[in-house]
Specification:
The chain has about 350 residues and is of the alpha/beta class. Helix content is about 35%, strand content about 10%. One of its GO terms (molecular function) is phosphatidylinositol transfer activity. It holds the Pfam family CRAL_TRIO.
Length: about 350
C-alpha cells in the first residue's frame, strides 16, 4: 500500500460503540490488543480516532506485526494485509471515503474491521450506491443477529445461553476450522453428513460463529481476509439435506453479509446423490460464488488440492496424506477464537 496512507490504532468495545481518542498499549494478556492497519480504508478515517475494544475481541481480523515501525512492536501488535486489489488504489480509496461518509456515527461504530467498506466496494464492482445500501443492511443485520454475542460467547464474560447453543450445534464436528492453505488462509471443514440439528436459527448462529472463526484465524495467521471451505460428503444421504429455507438462509448470509470472504470452496468426492441436492441449491447461488466452487474427483481433484494445500496437514477428505487427530469439539470451542483446531 502507498506510503502516504496513515497508520491508525483501532479498538472496538462490545459495550460502547462511540469513537474516542485512546493511546493505550497492550501490556498484558488482558489488555486491549493494538490493531494497526495500513489498509486503504485507513485513509478514510480521521487521524488519531480510535475505537474502544475489549480484550476478548482482540482476535477480529488480526495478524502479528510483520513490518518495522517507529514504535517497538510486541506480540500483540498486528496488521491487516488485505487481499488483491480490484481497482486502482486511488479509485478504491475514493470509493471507501464515499461509503464511509454515508454511514452514521453509530454505523461506523459497528464496522467489523478496517477493511469492511473496501470489501463491499469490491463486491459491488465499484457501484457506490449499491455498496452503501448493502453495507448498511449488513451492519443492521450484525446488530440484530447479535454477531458479537455469538463470536464472543466462549470468552469468560460470554453469553451462557449462546455458548450452550453453539456447543450443541458443534458437538458432532459438522463445521470447524483446521489448518491453512499455502497462503495462510484458514480451511473451514463442512461435514453435511454429521448434521445434528433441525433448528434453523441455531444452525445459522453456528454458521456465523464458524465464519467469524475462519476470519479471525486467517487474519491472525497471515493478515488476509478470505478463507477456504472444504466440503466432505462422507456419510451424506438425502435425509441429511437441509430444508430449502436453510439453504436460502445460508446463501443469504454468505453472499450478502460476508462478501469478499470466501476464497475457494472445494467439494470433495461428492456422491451421486449430491447431484440431486446440487440441482436444488444451484439456483440460489450467484455466478461469482459459483465460480469459486471446485468439484474435486480422483487424480485431477487431488492435483487441485495439492496446489492449494500442504496435503500433510489436510484431512483425508481433502486428499490428506496423514491421519490427523480426531476433532474434539470441547477443546476447539474453548481455544481462542483466532486458533484453528489442533493448532
Amino acid at each position: 500500500f502507498a506510503p502516504y496512507l496513515s497508520l491508525y490504532k483501532i479498538y472496538v468495545h462490545k459495550k460502547r460503540n462511540i469513537m474516542r481518542v485512546t493511546n493505550r498499549n497492550a501490556s498484558t494478556s488482558n489488555a486491549p490488543v493494538c490493531i494497526r492497519s495500513r489498509s486503504l480504508i485507513s485513509a478514510c478515517f480521521t487521524p488519531c480516532i480510535d475505537f474502544d475494544i475489549t480484550p476478548e475481541m482482540e482476535e477480529e481480523n488480526v495478524v502479528k506485526f510483520k513490518e518495522v515501525h517507529d514504535d517497538p512492536a510486541d506480540e500483540n501488535e498486528v496488521v491487516l494485509v488485505g487481499e488483491e486489489r480490484h481497482f486502482e488504489e486511488a479509485i478504491e480509496v475514493e470509493g471507501c471515503k464515499q461509503i464511509l461518509a454515508a454511514l452514521t456515527e453509530e454505523e461506523k461504530g459497528h464496522l467489523s474491521d478496517a477493511h469492511m467498506t473496501l470489501r463491499y466496494f469490491r463486491a459491488e464492482k465499484g457501484n457506490i450506491p449499491h455498496a452503501i445500501s448493502k453495507i448498511k443492511a449488513s451492519l443492521a443485520w450484525r446488530r440484530d443477529f447479535e454477531v458479537e454475542k455469538i463470536k464472543n460467547c466462549f470468552t469468560p464474560s460470554g453469553d451462557i445461553t449462546m455458548r450452550k447453543i453453539i456447543a450443541q450445534e458443534n458437538e458432532t464436528g459438522k463445521i470447524y476450522a483446521r489448518g491453512y492453505d499455502r497462503d495462510g488462509r484458514a480451511i473451514l471443514y463442512l461435514h453435511p453428513g454429521l448434521e445434528n440439528s433441525n433448528n434453523e436459527m441455531n444452525n445459522m448462529r453456528h454458521l456465523v460463529y464458524s465464519l467469524e472463526r475462519a476470519i479471525a484465524t486467517t487474519a491472525k495467521k497471515s493478515g488476509k481476509e478470505k478463507f477456504n471451505i472444504v466440503i466432505s460428503y462422507k456419510g451424506f444421504k438425502l435425509k441429511n439435506a437441509p430444508a430449502i429455507s436453510v439453504v436460502r438462509h445460508t446463501v443469504d448470509i454468505l453472499q450478502n453479509h460476508y462478501p469478499e470472504r470466501m476464497y475457494r470452496a472445494y467439494v470433495c468426492d461428492p456422491p451421486l446423490v449430491f447431484r440431486t441436492f446440487w440441482s436444488i441449491v444451484k439456483p440460489f447461488i450467484d455466478p461469482v460464488t459459483r465460480d469459486k466452487l471446485q468439484f474435486c474427483h480422483g487424480k485431477a481433484g487431488r492435483h487441485v488440492l495439492m496446489e492449494r494445500f500442504d496435503l500433510e496437514t489436510t484431512e483425508r477428505c481433502a486428499c490428506g496424506t496423514r491421519e490427523l487427530r480426531a476433532f474434539n469439539s470441547t477443546e476447539y470451542l474453548n481455544a481462542p477464537l483466532w486458533k484453528t483446531f489442533d493448532e
